[in-house]
Amino acid sequence: MRVTVKSESWDGVDGVRLRAAQRAELDARYGNDDHEPGVPPTAHDVGVFLVARDAHGAAVGCGGLRLLGPDSAEIKRMYVEPAVRGTGVAVAILRALEHEARRRGMTKLLLETGTAQPDAMRFYEREGYHRIDNFGPYAGEPLSVCYARELR
Fold it and tell me: Whole-model pTM above 0.85?
């Protein structure tokens, strides 16, 4: 599927809708709404927020970068609508996030996913991310699984 991935406002209608759909899916997978350790991301701490749009302009996915330091960021709110999963949308968003991180001088991306998201774990592993010890607010969290990738 051909998509365009561009920076958009965190508070834009499509971004809000996509993040709400992600939260609803995760609530269903984990059986509650208490499955995110740490401080939820906001427009204040997500320095990059991207939305993927299909050929008709419909928003079909999103992802952001929370800056952790001068050379690293955490991927946040990566989500693709179920109807278009497996069509390359997630790869396009991930590559665009990596490009933005490199452009901003970052050399490492980290992320957290969860034990009830084996599809996400397979995706990140396939795309070159390697499992690391849980970092920051995810340390010691039994439902968290963390990954990292060095950007070259």
Answer: yes
Q: CA neighbours within 13 Å on the CB side: how many for 75?
A: 26
Q: End-to-end distance of the chain based on CA atoms, in angstroms?
A: 27
**Residues 21, 22, 24, 28: what is their CA dihedral angle, to the nearest 10 degrees?**
140
pLDDT digits (tens, 9 = 90+) for 23-69: 999 999 988 877 678 888 999 999 999 999 999 999 999 999 999 99
The Cα 61–Cα 143 span in angstroms is 24
With 0-12 CB in 10 A as exposed, 13-18 as middle and 19+ as buried, what is 142?
A: exposed
